[in-house]
Amino acid sequence: MREILELLERDSTLSHDTIATMTGLPVEEVTAQIRAWEAAGVIRRYKAVVNWDAVEGADAGEVMAFIDVAVLPARGVGFDDVAQRISRFDEVRSVYLVSGGHDLRCTVVGSNIRAVSDFVSRKLSTIDRVQATSTHFVLATHKQDGDNFAEPEPDHRLPVTP
Question: Which helix (H) or strand (E) holds 134?
Fold first, then answer.
């Protein structure tokens, strides 16, 4: 069954018939399993990965930043309550508990650098137990969600003929 999830994660547009063919399972079983995962919240949503830099005439219109957050843990909840509070802000796209010099890594978007800066100084840094933040602005996206945005290099190998 994990194979179904891996296929959907790679390409959410696959039909149930195609997944059934690829896994060797009956279509009815694939459909029932996907519906059960959707109902249980295992499958959270379906989405497209868009390379906005490649869309002609499209202005990215958003600035993205990774913000590392140092948090003082609390007895019984650790970092979870702060992570949940941060995740409720509209500007926040993701929050991860990470190892290393900081405790949380957040992905944040804003209309410009000033908007992200204001979010950090007025909202994020004022949360109880947030001790420090470190903001890293995204300058270019080369790969996202497993999709490489770079043009593939041409194959310069000579053809082999018998």
Answer: strand 130-137
Q: Comparing C-alpha atoms, which of 138, 87, 141, 83 is closest to residue 110?
A: 138
- Give the angle subtended at the CA of 157 by the CAs of 151 and 162, to the nearest 5°: 140
- Provide the residue-wise pLDDT of the chain in tens; the chain has 162 residues: 899 998 998 888 999 999 999 999 999 999 999 999 999 989 988 887 777 767 766 565 689 999 999 999 999 998 999 999 999 999 999 999 999 999 999 999 998 999 999 999 999 999 999 999 999 999 988 888 777 888 778 888 888 877
Q: What angle do CA 85, 38, 20 make, to 5 degrees?
A: 145
What single DSSP character describes residue 51? -
Q: What is the dihedral of CA 19, 22, 26, 27, to 10 degrees?
A: 20
d(C-alpha 109, C-alpha 137), whole Å: 10
CB of 30 within 8 A of CB of 43? no
